[in-house]
Write a structure and sequence with these properties.
The protein is of the alpha+beta class and 102 residues long. The chain has three helices and four strands. It has one domain: Alpha-Beta Plaits (2-Layer Sandwich). InterPro entries: Dimeric_a/b-barrel (IPR011008).
Length: 102
């Protein structure tokens, strides 16, 4: 399995608009995406009000490529998101089976 961490920094003043897009469009889209095993959406904390993220676990690299294309370092951008975002970062990792301590 592949872990994909996708982080977004909104343009100044676009936090609320991106928040609506995040909750109303992006989260529902990701939850119904084929090949995605698990998705954890992250909304901003008070000291980082412009930062949002998704931590995703994909079945395998082929499932991820089916969603984003062959260049997995390229973000999958919804046209509604483009004008709201200042920057994006993407990281990938192999999933490691372990017990989660809570």
């Amino acid at each position: 399995m592949i872990v994909r961490i996708f982080q977004v920094v909104t343009r100044p003043g676009k936090e609320d608009a991106f928040g609506r897009f995040f909750h109303d469009t992006a989260i529902p889209l990701m939850k119904r995406t084929k090949g995605l095993v698990h998705v954890i959406p992250g909304a901003p904390l008070a000291d980082t009000p412009r930062e949002f993220c998704f931590v995703m676990v994909w079945e395998d690299i082929d499932a991820l490529k089916a969603f984003v294309g062959d260049d997995i370092s390229s973000p999958h951008i919804d046209p509604m998101e483009a004008e709201l975002v200042e920057s994006r970062s993407i990281k990938h990792y192999h999933f490691v089976e372990s017990e989660i301590l809570l």
